[in-house]
Design goal:
By secondary structure, this protein is an alpha+beta fold. It is built from three helices and eight strands. The protein has a domain of 91 residues: Trna Endonuclease, Chain: A, domain 1 (3-Layer(aba) Sandwich). The protein is globular.
């Protein structure tokens, strides 16, 4: 099934919100297509806040990061691939994204990418525990 890019992005965003909600976080998506983080979540007691960037893909593919790594922000990055058939999430920190980024150059233009073999690793796959719980539940 071929989905429009905006729909793929929405599916990944709401999949992430769903997973964070199950972990006890109060979750709010930010304005779509705005620069910055995609999800703000806060703990049940209101003492902890996290910002999450979400990158959604229709298949196992490289994640475009842009011309510089300046937009790699937030507390966590969630990459969701295969959103329409079997969503798989990979949870990384911004530092890990920057460290694993691949620098490409074509016709004098520089771009950064996160290759699948960099993010599709056991330590990141379904590793929601890296974010932790937003409530006191076990």
């Amino acid at each position: 099934m071929k989905l429009d890019g905006q729909i793929v992005g929405n599916a990944g965003l709401y999949f992430t919100c769903y997973q964070l909600s199950l972990l006890g976080w109060n979750v709010m998506p930010t304005a779509r297509n705005a620069r910055g983080i995609d999800v703000v979540a806060y703990s049940g007691d209101g003492e902890r806040y996290i910002g999450v960037q979400v990158k959604a893909l229709s298949k196992r593919a490289p994640v475009p990061l842009g011309k510089t790594l300046d937009k790699v922000m937030g507390d966590f990055w969630v990459i969701v691939n295969k959103v329409s058939v079997d969503p798989t999430a990979f949870i990384l920190t911004p530092d890990e994204v920057r460290q694993l980024a691949h620098r490409g150059e074509k016709e004098g233009r520089v771009s950064f990418w996160l290759q699948p073999n960099a993010y599709d690793a056991d330590e990141f796959r379904g590793a929601w525990s890296r974010i932790g719980r937003g409530d006191s539940g076990a």
